[in-house]
Amino acid sequence: LKRKDIAKPEEKPQTTKPQKEMTTEQILWIVGSSLLGLILLLLSIPSLIYRYLLLRHNNARPDGGKAYWAYQVASFYLHQVGIARRGGTPMQYAKSIVDNRFGTSFAQFMNVYLKQKYAKQPLTEREHAQVESFLEPFLQSVRKQVPLKQRVAGFLSPARSISFFSIGSRNET
């Protein structure tokens, strides 16, 4: 038989640790770091939106939204680098502004995209191939012809990204 101690163990007095006071320098460093992080997050919004649209395009089904997401990526990229759609239809924008300036096949792609969007007809094999092969050469062509400084400035402008999604910008700017 083992004997049980009935006596309660003595309670140890809790020691309070002295609180360390923060210096003004530490507070300023925390506030400065937080502001810098917020500014960097804000400046990365256009790039994050572009990457998101590109991801949606790459994961889209060919018979579903591949053409839609290719149009969105191309339109957003052009908007960010300053090639704005100033009124007119998307087809007029593609022919008169984009294809004239960059020598791309944006108007041909728009024919296929608009056929799929409005006519709701299935695309032919040739049209599927055109949708699949449109975006990368298009973006490369635009990148080569738009100066780096203009591209960087455009992708550091969160206000321009927000204006892409505003209702009036699609028709006016």
Binned, the helix content reads 55-70%
For the secondary structure, the number of strands is 0
Low-confidence stretches: none
Output the helix-strand order: HHHHHHHHHH
- The proportion of residues in beta strands is under 5%
Described by strand count, sense and barrel closure, the largest sheet is:
none
What does this structure look like?
The chain is mainly alpha-helical and 173 residues long. The protein has 10 helices and no strands. Helix 2 (45-59) packs antiparallel against helix 3 (66-80) and helix 3 packs parallel to helix 7 (135-145). The protein is elongated, with a radius of gyration of 28 Å. The mean pLDDT is 87.
Summarize the structure.
With 173 residues, this protein is mostly helical. The protein has helices at 24-43, 45-59, 66-80, 90-102, 106-119, 125-132, 135-145, 148-155, 158-165, 169-172.
Strand-helix topology:
Elements: H1 24-43, H2 45-59, H3 66-80, H4 90-102, H5 106-119, H6 125-132, H7 135-145, H8 148-155, H9 158-165, H10 169-172
List the main descriptive attributes of the protein structure presented here:
173 residues; mainly alpha; 10 helices; 67% helix; elongated
